[in-house]
Design brief:
By secondary structure, the protein is of the alpha/beta class. About 40% of the residues lie in helices and about 15% in strands. The structure holds ligand SAJ. The site of ligand SAJ has 20 residues, from helix 8.
């Protein structure tokens, strides 16, 4: 590491996590080289622009690029610290189960191995199945027999002082709040050895204000998976309650609001399913690692995926019961106030409704400039919330965007509403059906 104590850093993968991370490290004064496999991404960043949406990221990237602290490239160069933030998707294995694909992590390790030198620190941030950091270490060891590589034998102590340090340190930031959470959240830092953890800790201390807690690499890998599985299981509980409440004619939102008044109960919110790239994915990494021991986590995944089909069936029944009504699906994003439509249950539900009811359907998504590809040729139109309130009798709330949340009761009291997010607690429950029938008849 350099004597001015500002390590040169190489961030591999300039996506939703890698780019903000690279920018925050650059802001702390380190020179950062960002690597990506896409020439387009590299060119965009080198112009001081960004290819993803994230609050305040544009200004930060523009600033650090113009100060010469951040640049992007397709090609690796020597650095003091390497941070790997590449995707770890899953694929269906031969049994139809979800197998984690760590090939991008190993490819990143292969890429940096030739430029590693004594004293370097390699940190994996990608969400990874337990044991991935060790696999990456083994690959680096194979490619660089000239370097002493850390091994956690002898109770975490190595016979010789290794040349390089290797650690796992997962990100735990929320899209939409990434810059703030990157700096303020606590971090778990898992070293292959305690010495590796301390080296990585010294690096994170340069730009993280949250507490940094050290452990070993496998525990840190599992911690990340557990955090998202915990949330998935708890959302599954809420989603199951919503299906039970539908069956029993209860308002699940009211039941949850009341139950949460208990000092030790905190039920999460039902929705149309669980989306995004983390909570719906990471639990499978645990299930894959211990298939016999994970009935709860596996079932939670099934409940959350099943909720999408429950919502589709309920929406279809409502629409079919009102053959003259026009329908507005409110929202396509995977959660509120973001423009991310990948792995979105709202998008899945809306597209099924669009395919089935065609021209009767309109989509409202303030964060989309155009509708995703699967809506092509369905006959649906994209309208704004004002037009939806003026022209549609059925409103299906799929995303809790603020712009939907603030619609006052007076503008929707006569509508037939299926609110999968519980944003309109004051919507009349019994009268609304009758009122809407009258509105249709007039
Ligand atoms: N959701 C519900 N009900 C709830 C909360 C969420 O249905 O009560 C749904 C959302 O609508 C969305 C999905 O779950 O479809 C996930 O949304 P989220 O806001 O809970 O989480 P993500 O996927 O944006 O980010 C998560 C976060 N993990 C946890 O909160 C434990 C984040 O801190 C992680 O960094 C991120 O995953 C990740 O990258 O792993």
């Amino acid at each position: 590491m350099k004597s001015d104590n500002k390590p040169a850093v190489c961030v591999v993968g300039l996506g939703y996590i890698g780019l903000p991370t690279a920018a925050v490290i650059a802001r702390s004064g380190s020179k950062v080289l960002g690597l990506d496999v896409s020439q387009k991404v590299v060119d965009t960043i080198n112009r001081g622009e960004i290819h993803i949406e994230e609050v305040d990221l544009d200004g930060l990237v523009q600033g650090v690029v113009s100060r010469g602290l951040l640049s992007a490239s397709l090609e690796v160069a020597p650095a003091d610290v390497f941070v790997i933030a590449v995707p770890t998707p899953f694929e269906k294995d031969e049994k139809g189960d979800h197998a984690p694909d760590i090939s991008y992590v190993l490819a990143a390790g292969r890429k940096i191995a030739p430029v590693l030198k004594a004293g370097d620190v390699v940190i994996l941030e990608s969400t990874s199945p337990v044991g991935t950091t060790e696999k990456m270490r083994d690959m680096i060891a194979q490619m660089r027999p000239d370097l002493k590589i850390p091994y956690a034998d002898q109770g975490g102590l190595t016979r010789e002082t290794p040349d390089i340090s290797i650690a796992y340190c997962p990100e735990r930031v929320l899209p939409g709040r990434i810059l703030e959470e990157l700096t303020n959240n606590d971090r778990s830092i898992g070293g292959i050895t305690p010495r590796c953890a301390r080296k990585a800790l010294a690096f994170y201390k340069r730009f993280v204000r949250g507490e940094c807690v050290t452990t070993d690499a496998r525990a840190a890998e599992m911690t990340k998976l557990v955090e998202n599985a915990y949330r998935d299981v708890n959302i599954a509980f809420a989603n199951e309650l919503s299906i039970v409440s539908d069956r029993m004619g209860l308002d699940v939102w009211e039941v949850i609001r009341l139950a949460n008044r208990h000092p030790r109960v905190n039920i999460l919110s039902p929705g149309p399913g669980v989306g995004g790239h983390c909570i719906a994915v990471d639990p499978w990494f645990i299930v894959h690692g211990a298939p016999e021991e994970t009935p709860l986590i596996r079932t939670a995944r099934g409940v959350n995926d099943g909720k999408m089909h429950h919502v589709i069936a309920k929406a279809e029944a409502l629409i079919e019961a009102h053959p003259d009504a026009r329908i507005a699906c409110l929202g396509l994003a995977f959660k509120a106030n973001i423009d991310d439509f990948r792995e979105s249950p709202a998008r899945f539900v809306a597209s099924r409704i669009a395919r089935k009811f065609g021209e009767r359907v309109s989509i409202v998504e303030p964060y989309a400039t155009e509708l995703p590809i699967e809506f092509t040729d369905t006959g649906v139109t994209q309208i704004d919330i004002d037009e939806a309130l003026e022209t549609c009798e059925i409103l299906i709330v799929l995303v809790d965007h603020d712009v939907f949340r603030v619609v006052p009761l007076a503008e929707r009291a006569t509508k037939l509403v299926y609110d999968t997010r519980g944003i309109w607690a004051d919507q009349p429950r019994v009268v609304r059906e009758e009122a809407a029938k009258l509105a249709l008849a007039s």
